Amino acid sequence: MALTLIILLHSVVSQTLSSESDKVALLALKQKLTNGEPNALPSWNESLHLCGTLGPSLANLTFLRTLVLFNIHLHGEILPQVLDLSHNNLHGQIPIQLTNCSKLEVVNFLCNKLTGKVPSWFGTGSMTKLSKLLLGAKDLVGTIPPSLGSLTSLHNFTLARNHLEGSIPHALAQLSNFKELYLGLNGTLPSNMALAFPNLRNFLVGGNYFNGTFPSSISNITGLQKFDISSNGFNGPIPPTLGSLNKLQIFQVAGNSFGSGETNDLDFLSSLTNLLILYDNRFGGMLPDLIGNLSTHLRWLSMDVNQISGTIPEGIGQLIGLTDFTIIENFI
User: What is the pTM assigned to this prediction?
Assistant: First the structure.
């Protein structure tokens, strides 16, 4: 039976105190694992120092399945032998040697300083089991390679906080398991979102340079739970068909140019959500009476800086779960 070994190296305030306490813990673990056998794990002894570098000998651990190096202030370039490397200070390009890791299922380089383009070899090599590709690393450039459409097991793809350009490639529509998409790029959204990503659960592309109109086919992604396209350049109406998304929990469209100042701008409010962030747009008209029919789990309703007029419907008092309601800088 293959061994699963998880190595957790925590960052600490006091290196001395942490190293000493960690050494004691490791020696106690050795005692339990080896039943006191004196010749077992000989390098785990009183002279053990929990500091230094991660050597290439890690590549000799043929049964190793999981190596977690989360938030330990690593620096330098990425070693081809090593991988969760999120929240560190790694730089350079993503090494092509990763294509040798045919059993790898998760690549997590979130919150580093990686440079270069998103490698096309992720989809052309032997990494057929890859299910999570998390590359939110600040300084990646270029476009999303269409070859990623070959990663048939991929269900979580993150490219937030980068400097990418172009649009979402149609090749990603081949990914039937695709559920979570977090992007940082510009361009337009596919008009057939429901056909491209029918199983999507989370669609988060806030703070980018997307433009165009609201993709009405979103209404057909019936399992959608989180939707954020805030702080982009979208405009036009939001379709009233969003009411069919009865699993929707978060809906954020703030910081765009949605609406026209007309009376029917808010007809889409029939959606049952827990979080409605609509501020800084051009929504006009009066708040509809049906606002009282929204989910009693609705917690946050933000409608500041729009062109809403009239009075606040009494029905809003039926939203017993509402904790934050803001509607300043309107015509109420």
Answer: 0.68
